[in-house]
Amino acid sequence: MGKQAHRPLVVWSAISVLATSSAIFGASLIGVLFVYNEPRAFHIQPTLLLVVMPLIGLIGLMRQKLWGREVSLLSIASLWAFILGGFWSIFGAKPIAEFRMTTLTVSTFLFLITLLLLLPGLFARLRWGISSREFFGD
């Protein structure tokens, strides 16, 4: 770790996922603060978790710290669980026959399925990938 190492593609992918998710959930946190007159802790805590934890992981990844990778892995796992819960609340409670598949519904469905399939792969490559382990000196 003494010399400057080339940042692998999996690290850049994790950085982009963490930055994007943090920006999206940061905007929703601002929305929660403006919608509710007296925001309660149960309104703010999940969103705050999905904003602060990726930012901490992002800083750690940029500084090539091992703790940054671990926090990033926790953030990616939390994001996956949050997306899975959202997917289940939107699409899981109703039978497929009840949906009127508009263009927005189809694109949302496909986007969520894509994220649910790609995030575990990113998690695995960041945690156990050879390039990631070499980059962090693991």
Structure description:
The chain has 138 residues and is mainly α. It has one domain. It is 79% helix and 0% strand. The protein has 5 helices and no strands. The longest helix is centred in the N-terminal third of the chain and has 27 residues. The model has no long low-confidence stretch (mean pLDDT 85).
Write a brief structural summary.
It is built from five helices and no strands. It has 138 residues and is an all-alpha fold.
Given helix and strand content, the structural type is mainly alpha
Strand content: under 5%
Helix segment tally = 5
Taking the alpha carbons of the first and last residues, their distance comes to: 10 Å
Low-confidence stretches: none
Radius of gyration, in Å, reads 17 Å
**Mean model confidence by pLDDT:** 85
Strands, total number: 0
Instruction: Give the CA-based shape.
Output: globular
Largest sheet: none
H/E order of the elements?
HHHHH
Fraction of residues in helix: over 70%
Number of domains: 1
